[in-house]
Amino acid sequence: MTYHPKSDFMATIMERGFLADCTDYQALDDALSEGQVTAYIGYDATAKSLHVGHLLNIMLLRWFQKTGHKPITLMGGGTTKVGDPSFRADERPLLTPEAIGENIAGMKSVFAQYLDYGAEGNGALMLDNAEWLDGLNYLEFLRDIGRHFSVNRMLSFESVKSRLDREQSLSFLEFNYMILQAYDFLELNRRYGCLLQMGGSDQWGNIVNGIDLTRRVLDHEIFGLTTPLLTTSDGRKMGKSQGGAIWLSSEMLSPYEFWQFWRNTTDADTGRFLKLYTELPVEECERLGALGGSEINDAKIILANEVTSLLHGPEAAAAAEATAREVFEKGGVGADLPTLTVSAEELGEGISVVQLIVRSGLASSGKEAKRLIADNGARIDDAPLTDAGLMIDAERLAAPIKLSAGKKRHALVQLG
Q: What is its EC number (predicted)?
């Protein structure tokens, strides 16, 4: 598609690679050019922290605000009680209101690093859809909102169809989710003049539903815009690592491990990730991404520093880089490495090195840890670890030990 945008926001996101699809490029671009627009992205509170998979759309909201517009982060205090069935093989476990509240509190602290909620004129808003969903009267809702939805059309959406094609159960509770998300857009338009919903391309069907509903009920023109679902150049889903999700909360993942995730970006992804996850000029991102040989590693360090600085602050990024240099270039331990503290009671007569590898997050199971040792991928204090039956006792833990999985993943174990 050849389209030359007029608005700063559309020009920025198209140049940097954020745009997958839009319901009406021209009309949205016109609205963005004519004055301040309000847009939202919804986040269900299914965990205590957001993860790297959310970061693309958080950066999208950040650019939206930086180009003069007003972002809304919509917490799904209401929709989390139902669970989004989109492209899932099974039903999400239902959370208690208390757990949902705790998760929302954890997510808020991450958003505050990227968005300015107190800015004059275009300060971000944080809202919770429980505000309008919790008090709905079922019969009134069916009559006023449900009548605008065709079951035939809802069954045709890929997110639902793929579940039914595999003959996996889709509960009536989950089936209601897309109606509730559509109703969110209607309410945000009615209450805040919100003109745009953004999200990952897996949300396209839900976004279009909200646009249709708002046109039918309020006769307002509103828009949808999606970002690509990112995979790394080796085909993995963005944000997944061998150790599990890359969390954005420092309580769930240390700034060093977050920094190291970005430092380990493949050569082919470096330029693209610089455009999406940093604010460096596009020309600089392209120059760094095109570096060859060992120079590409300098670009990856810049990527890791820039992304970590945005989330955890420049000091955390500098500390992570210093630790990495000490560990990799000088063979040292590094004060900022992820650390597992084992109590004297836990240690007892000794604890297996396999258990320590799992508990320190270097492997997800004992089986994986043993395979790592068998494949010569494990080290203890930089020496090859070949004995999966090795027991670590108090004498061995008199000083902290360093465990390594491959060349790039390390953890300290200490006696507490």
A: 6.1.1.1
- The C-alpha atoms of residue 385 and residue 398 are separated, in whole angstroms, by 19
Element (H, E) at 218: helix 204-218
Report pLDDT digits (tens) over 311-345: 999 999 999 898 888 766 555 555 567 778 888 77
The topology under which CATH files domain 254-329 is: Tyrosyl-Transfer RNA Synthetase (1.10.240)
Question: What residue segments make up the domains of the chain, in order of their start?
Answer: 8-227, 254-329, 339-415
Structure tokens at 217: 């009920």
| 402: β partners | 412
Q: Which CATH superfamily is domain 339-415 in?
A: RNA-binding S4 domain (3.10.290.10)
Structure tokens at 361: 């997050």
Domain 8-227 matches domain 339-415 at the CATH topology level: no
Instruction: Check: pTM over 0.85? Answer yes or no.
Output: no
The annotation status of 408 as a binding-site residue, yes or no, is no
CATH of domain 8-227: 3.40.50.620
Neighbours of 267 (CB within 10 A): 15
- Assigned token pair, 91: 């039903």
Q: Is 177 among the annotated ligand-binding positions?
A: yes
Residues 6+ apart with CB under 8 A from 282: 15, 16, 275
Sign of the C-alpha dihedral computed for residues 411, 412, 415 and 416 taken in this order: negative
pLDDT for residue 1 is more than 80: no
- Decide the pairing of beta strands 351-352 and 339-342: unpaired
Best-predicted range by mean pLDDT (70-79, 139-148, 300-309): 300-309
Strand partners, 199: 226
The arithmetic mean of pLDDT across residues 122-140, rounded, is 92
Q: What is the Cα 165 distance to its own chain's centre?
A: 28
What digits encode the pLDDT tens for the residues 7-64? 999 999 999 999 999 999 999 999 999 999 999 999 988 888 899 999 999 999 999 9
Q: Is residue 40 part of an annotated ligand binding site?
A: yes
The Cβ of residue 309 has, within 10 Å, a number of other Cβ atoms equal to 18
pLDDT digits over 55-80, tens only?
999 999 999 999 999 999 999 888 88
